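Dear H.,

Thanks for agreeing to be a second pair of eyes. The structure we're designing against is below in token form, covering all 98 positions.
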């Protein structure tokens, strides 16, 4: 979960850390908040629709694996626990896309 004091403090520290580094040496913090899956996905897709329509198509394909669990992300966790193939490779690939 990202909406907590620890992550807020980490992001503040990371921002200060990166300010003194060259752009190509900065550390990035990326991911998809599974606890607000629908909102997180919508935010990424909304941004990409405006700024990178081709990237938005790729993101929709990658996030498609998570579509059945948009409203109840806990069901995804249980499905993976009981043998369903995880969506992690697709989501990680999306997070690594610049």
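And this is the sequence the design step returned. I haven't edited it by hand at all.
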């Amino acid at each position: 979960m990202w909406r907590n004091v620890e992550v807020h403090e980490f992001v503040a520290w990371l921002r200060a850390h990166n300010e003194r580094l060259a752009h190509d040496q900065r550390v990035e913090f990326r991911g998809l908040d599974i606890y607000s899956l629908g909102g997180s996905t919508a935010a990424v897709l909304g941004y990409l629709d405006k700024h990178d329509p081709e990237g938005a198509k790729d993101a929709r394909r990658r996030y498609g694996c998570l579509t059945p669990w948009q409203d109840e992300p806990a069901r995804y966790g249980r499905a993976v626990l009981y043998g369903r193939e995880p969506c992690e490779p697709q989501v990680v690939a999306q997070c690594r896309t610049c």
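Two observations from my side: The first helix runs from residue 5 to 19. The chain has a mean pLDDT of 89.

Warmly,
E.
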